[in-house]
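Re: the 122-residue chain
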Amino acid sequence: MTKILIAEDDLMISEIYQRKFLEKGYEVLTAFSGDQVVEIVKKQAVDIVLLDLLIPKMDGFSVIENLRKGNHDQNIKIIVSSNLSQKEDRDKVMALGANGFITKSQYTPSEMVEEIKRLTGE
């Protein structure tokens, strides 16, 4: 079973995404801050991180950098889900090692699941 870590500080959005990914057969973990993402990934195997850029304690850019440069599984797929959709933001996350970028406001939760599948080749 694919394990996804949803890093989202908006509780309502996090719960909606959790429900949709669980319905599609994913194992779901959640984090509400960047430092939680790093701690969870240190402690257990995660296949995908669905990462908001604007999260407390460590922003998404720093999380990507930490996961890609640290002693973490380099096969983790990092998909950024944010409304910061300027070209510079997209370019920066991709340069840091993200596997994809989704503009959150352009997808329903169900469409988000399908886009994650597409971006991760599932």
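The chain has five helices and five strands.
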